[in-house]
Amino acid sequence: MKKLFILLFSFLTISAHAEAAAEGGEFKPGDLIMHHIADDYTWHFADGVTLYLPVILIDNGTPKVFSSSNFYDENHALVPYEGYVLNHGHIYRADANGQPAADQSSLLDFSITKNVASLFASVILLFAVFLTIAGSYKKNRGKAPNGIQSFFEPIIIFVRDEIAKGNIGPKYERYMPYLLTIFFFIWFNNLLGLMPGGANLTGNIAVTLVLATLTLLITVFSGNKSYWSHIFATPGVPAWLAPIMIPVELIGILTKPFSLMVRLFANITAGHIIILSLFSLIFIFQSVAVAPISVAFAIFMFFLELLVALLQAYIFTLLSAMYFGGAVEEHDHVGDHGHGDGAH
Questions:
Q1: Cross-strand bridge partners of residue 54
Q2: In this structure, are 185 and 87 located in the same domain?
Q3: CB-based contacts of 184: which residues, under 8 Å, 6+ apart?
Q4: Which of 1, 4, 121, 203 would disulfide-bridge 268, Cβ 3.0–4.6 Å?
Q5: What is the dihedral of CA 58, 124, 161, 306, to 10 degrees?
């Protein structure tokens, strides 16, 4: 099945190349790659299989709802529709020439894009999986786990014992719902993104920004007196250095979620780009001889991405737990002023 996913990815690439060649155009790997990793108002699964998503606009307080298919003619060329135009992945008010108008004020876009639809699908999948597991626990109370429950139970226990308990300490239970949610949300969406036609949800900087912001907010609001005193009155640091150290510590609070955001975004997006780039080499060199090498490396990268999908979920959850642990930890600086950072 995994190799089938790769073959379907290859089919998508070949179809795009054949279409460009039929129109007398040049194959542009950059356009192909961006089409697959960027958000869109349509969801393209395979050649000829496209889901047109609903467009929801609020224009000067007036709601406008219609299908994104209205932006395309019979040749799939972009056309204006009811005074709006789709340009470079965004919807604008159109001028008389069908181009984005100068005035775009009071135009709000709440459309269901490919990433939003994928988000809804992943949430439904998560609810379905874990409600099924919860039902199994109620049904098999006191019995050995079986079925899907036996697969997920060791993973849940691992998150609890190795990530939450080990990094947060006695207060770990209050953070378990969040840690389990982000772990499985990131893991599931990483895997869904590797499927043919899958959306690059966790490779979207807006999504990783929200996840990182949630970790930041939980960390900040969990901070105890010891946590904040360590920031505003770092033990062992002379008072005259406080104007320097306080901004440094505050910047450090922000750089931690920033690194979470960029790490997940960059790793997932890079994996998609590499796989599609390897397939593109076949058409760039226009040689069948390149195909075996290109496909072999692409298959290797695909299996590596399956590992990365799990690894990135683990890293994000682990670092979040470490930040929570640092916020609730009670520091004892008596007689040991030189080890304030060592507690972390």
A1: 67
A2: no
A3: 126, 130, 313
A4: 203
A5: -90
Condensed to tens digits (0 to 9), the pLDDT of residues 36-92 reads: 888 999 988 877 788 999 999 999 889 999 999 999 988 888 899 988 999 888 999
What residues have CB less than 8 Å from 124, skipping those under 6 apart? none
Number of domains present in the structure of the chain: 2
Residue identified by tokens 């005074």 is: 83
Both 68 and 127 in one domain: the answer is no
Domain range holding 301?
Answer: 115-328
Q: Give the number of other Cβ atoms within 10 Å of residue 223's Cβ.
A: 19
Decide if 45 is inside a domain: no
Under DSSP, is residue 93 helix (H, G, I), strand (E, B) or coil? Answer: strand
CA distance 281 to 288: 10
Say yes or no: 86 and 159 in one domain.
Answer: no
3-state secondary structure of 104: coil
Is residue 199 within 8 Å of residue 51, measured between CB atoms? no
Distance CA 321, CA 68 (A): 41
pLDDT(15) > 80 = no
Is residue 23, in this structure, part of any structural domain at all?
no
Cβ–Cβ < 8 Å for 227, 324 = no
| In a shared domain, residues 189 and 217 | yes
